[in-house]
Model the fold of this input.
Amino acid sequence: QVTLVESGGGLVQPGGSLRLSCVASGITLSSHAMGWYRQAPGRQRELIASSTITDSTSYAHSVKGRFTISRDNAKNTMYLQMNSLKPEDTAVYYCYEFSLAAWGQGTQVTVSS
Done:
């Protein structure tokens, strides 16, 4: 059974930074394509960053240049480094495993002064 647990969300001022973590169990992270989604109130869940098993990455236009997806395979953990945060980045952030369609429970990120 796959379990994905996100952490690292919180309240941050505009221009600030946060790092989200996603700890995986039940799978070997290095063998799986993974992604980060987010869902803002009243909006559809959207894919914002993804990472293949060859460490190729891609980003949504809205976060490109500000967010970085990475992995620590020894810790079986995926990260999302978020810099230069904006109020429109406020959302619940989810990690996702593509082949098994597995979701984490989400972590809230609020960007506000």
Q: What stands out?
A: Residues 51 and 57 are 5 Å apart (CA to CA). The radius of gyration is 13 Å. The chain has a mean pLDDT of 97.
